[in-house]
Amino acid sequence: MSEELYERLANAILRGDIEGATKAAEDIIKAKADADKALKKASEAMLKVGDMFDRGEIFLPEVMIAADAMKAAIEVLKPALSELVKSELKRGRFLIGTVEGDVHDIGKGIVATMLEAAGFEVIDLGRDVPMSVFLEKTKELKPDIVGLSALMTVTRENQRVFIEMLKREGLRDKVKVMVGGGATTGEWAERIGADGWGEDAPSAVKKAIELIEKKKRGE
Question: What is the three-state SS of 115-137?
Answer without folding.
Answer: HHHCCEEEEECCCCECHHHHHHH
